[in-house]
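Q: My collaborator sent me two sequences in one message, no labels, and asked for predicted structures for both. Can we handle them in order? The first one she listed is below.
A: Yes, handling them in the order given. First sequence, followed by its structure tokens:
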Amino acid sequence: MSEDGKSVIEFQDVYKVYDTGTVQVHALDGVSLLVRRGDFFAIMGPSGSGKSTMLNLLGCLDRPTRGKYLLDGRDVASQTDDELSDIRLAHIGFVFQSYNLIAQLSVWENIELPLYYQGVDSSASEAKARELAKMVGLGDRLDHRPYELSGGQCQRVAIARALANEPSVILADEPTGNLDTKTGEQILELLQSLNDQGITIIMVTHEAEIADVAERCIHMRDGRIEKIE
């Protein structure tokens, strides 16, 4: 639910063109989008529609070929690689289909990673990581390693890790893709509850019933936004 109407993300006529040497691929073709604080968007579209490219740009993993991308009012399209890395760390939380946890680290240590890279005091970062673990229902699994957890529990760790740096937006890429139906529903309920607390979420999915959890759905085709409903 939109919390205060303040813009978090703004795409202004964004293009992304990949030059393969023989042909230019227009992965995004003039996309404009406004996301306000507290919004919950799903992005859907067939293979090749541009949704993955859009997520990469939103996550500052790539830059637009043309157009503006404003994140919390800052134009990030022209930033250096190091600046983009700092922006990702400070403003964006990622949740991936494959969890991307570090096998050698415990639950709380995985959650703590963004704080470690931000140079937060170790005792403060550990306390926050443990608190987040409890918030996502893993208070009794703090010292477990990922291989000792179920898929749903691993995704909960990933969500808690995404929240650690108090990001402007959480980007979730097929967050239930590796989970059974019941566990997937539990993860979606968790994302809904976070959104109810005012956290901005953008989620890519290919399943309409999962997209229904979001407040609004962006339908993409051929690198363009076909409709938003």
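Q: And the one she listed second?
A: Here it is, processed independently of the first:
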Amino acid sequence: MAGHSKWANIQHRKGKQDAKKAKVFSKLSKEITIAAKMGGPDADMNPRLRLAVANARGQSMPKDNIERAISKGAGGDAAVYEEIRYEGFAPGGIGVIVEVSTDNRNRAAADVRAAFSKNGGNLGETGSVAFMFDQVGEVRYPAEAADETAMLEGAIEAGAQDVVSDQDGHVVTCAREDLSDVAAALEARFGEPESANMVWRPQTSVDIEGEAAASVLKLLSSLEDSDDVQNVFANFEISEEEMERLAD
């Protein structure tokens, strides 16, 4: 979701993400708890937990918060979360995939449906959007972690499929089943990543601007505000100039 990534970067540079830090930590904690509950508290033996902890550290989540989330999951007293994928369309026919972890399916469904309907979009059937995306592993590093050549060499040796490097950082992609191994190899060489996740990468993207761009971003923000929503992906592109204008 290149357009949305640009939006996140601009918002971060303008300092508007501070108020959302608690919500980010809450979602990271939930993923850590789910991973520990499903696969145990030993990150060395639990690839999902290892990735969740790496993501939390990449977002500067305090160590105490991470340890509490692991203990909660391992202790067996955590809520039982159901993982659900919703698919729909934003204004302009933009495909949207919403990943949810919830202990209340009815609440989550109502929140997602409301976000779409209030912002000019509509929910679709399962499979109506996913065919336009590929699910891959993605590892992100800041630009200062390595130069472009070193990151490319490291990614190839780790078994990755592709690397895109620019002023905002390095994005390494790999087969979904290789994510844990690739992330571990990169961490051994470059240190902890900013994030390491399964993502839905669009096969093609739609260029949008003006009112359509504003509507799409409003919908995505509404979805991300839901406590049940863990990740949102969409197949759009917005120019840097348009992003700067919308961020003002």
